[in-house]
Queue: 2 jobs
Job 1
Amino acid sequence: MNNVKYLCKGYYWKLCLVEVKTNQPRSSRKFSICDDKKQRIFTVTIKDLMNTDTYYWCFVEINGGADDGQNFHLSVTTDTPSLSVDHQDITGFIGESINISCYYRNSGERGWCRLGMNCVTGSSGSIDGTNVTIRATVPNVFTVTMSGLKAESSGWYYCVKGELQMPVHVTVTETPTTSAPRTTECPTNISPTLEPVHQSSVFASKDPSTVQQNSLSIHLKSFIIRLSLLTFIVIVGLFIWFMFRRYKRTKADSTTAKAEEDLRHSNAEEYSKEVKRRE
């Protein structure tokens, strides 16, 4: 349990590059690692994902022997993920039920599994004494219901569709009078979707299940803001143009009036001079 854990990048384990280790958790800005010894799970977070972030290995150092590792394939996409869930961190209460909706765009067998234990792939079954039912009432979504929850039901689970897996952490507690924080040592807000290699048990996730709807909402808000800003600029521009035209017209009228006044004054002086000359 106190063994060093680490993440290694590369397709071949003998040639992979160690990115972060639990005894050096802050050695990189891109990678971070946390070891939850109570649940016997270590979590790696990867930031600033790129298309080259594809093949990795999770390893546990074995004193006096070969390190134990598991490879996985990370799929990086800017589009809607092939497999996602509404929430990756769900709290339920003893004796009650919880629902998890799994959204998918790929094909293959669906299922609900507990990490390190069995899976339910049919319409119903049980995992560690907790009843599980799987329903698919709308296209591209299947809903998992866990009923008769027990304290022992807490832990990591994951949706399965084809070769993709999406993790969900379930916490089961007594019904509280006030909400209490979860007591895990590592954060669970992992982001990218992981595609297991050779039926790997490694998993990962993509949090927002309605990415496309959120994207449309964001674009609509951005369009409204830009349109409002453009309208404001046009109104201000028209106001400045109107005031400038008015100023030029006022100035021109003033100049014309002054010229006419000067002309009248000049004509009056000439007339007066002509009258005096004739006298």
Job 2
Amino acid sequence: MSDKFYNLKHFQFLFSYFTKMGASKPIFRDLNAEDPEPEATEIESLCVNCHANGITRLLLTKIPFYKEVVLMSFSCEQCGFENNEIQSGAAISPEGVKINLRVETQADLNRQLVKSDYTSIKIVELDFEIPPKSQKGEVTTVEGVINRSIAGLQQDQVARRIQHPETAAQIDEFIQKLEKLKDLNSPFTLILEDISGNSFIENPQAPKKDRNCTTHFFKRTKEQDHELGIFTPAEVGNENSSGILHRIPENEFTLEDLEGEVLQFPTNCSNCNSPCQTNMKMTKIPHFKEVVIMATSCDTCGHRTNEVKSGGGIEPFGVHIEVLVNGREDFSRDVLKSETCSLQIPELELEVGPHALGGRFTTVEGLLVAIKEQLDNPNFSHMFGDSQTAESKGRLEEFFKRLQEVLDGKFKITVVLDDPAGNSYIQSLDDENKGLKITKYERTFEQNEELGLNDMKTENYTSD
């Protein structure tokens, strides 16, 4: 079944779903005992094996750590052919993702792994690569990736041993190398690179930093955007054509208009993907800069989000902020954490990446509460549901206990903010900046690359 055919079925499913439900329930819902019979749509479709008519069943749900998904199951009563597939139902991430995992122990082999259709998988030590779009998206483990690779190589070995014995012998030798990886006689490196940004590898030490796994986000190229079906307004249609998008005339919205009123634009709920409205307003933080405040409220599932983005561009230097939190006065400090800012609390062995909490304008106490609420989210605390071990559960409970003691003021901590874009801020309580250390630094090449600054042209940018 082709991707084009699936897209048609996906559209038919959404249309029939809204017709039947009237959007009275969230589109993507968790599977639980309170909702034992979620809506599944059946579509008559062609069997690719015998060309008779079979049935495709589609279900929209959510997988922890992996956004929304469309589960598809096809079965043919004529020949017995069956096919199951998973596709992402969420919006494409603004950036691609590259995940490097050093596999050293059995626990690393058991890590949960989510890959999309656009994910390439590499095993560095064997110079082995699975190209993107060669396998469908799936939820598996690191060991499951190896087993699926072995199964794929073994698929035509019987015929190959007769027709091309030398090639078959080489493949058998390589299969043995893949089998030995599972014995962990020596560590190996697994790399996932996904231009859609919808891949993930579990951190078994959460909420502590993952020492064996690093994640890097990157800007997609023009060709990669086109592969995902993303086009610029100029590519879709200019202002003189009847394209889908059109250019906003210059000075249609002045700065006074933006600062003086709340703007609204349609979007989709980040929790259930139902249509909703996002409110946006520009304002200025005293002694800092202009920011854009965005708030979304979903009438379908009740989910609410608030986010703050810098309205003043990227600063010339990055900023590293350390604040000692030792009492109620420190809890009341105003904090602006931008979407490019990472957070650390050394006393709790906690490290939060820049994309985890998003942009927020809050207090130190509000920042700690937000961390607790996000970690206490069922999608996180259940760690893929039944796969959660007693060790990981106990570690998370101990972390919550210590974090609550911090909120109760029982011991002091140091909150460290590091923002390469320089758009984060913590309020100073006095002229001497007691308990507060702010350091500005030159960004590295990698940080500039992640911010998209290395290829930015600020002079003669209209020329070729």
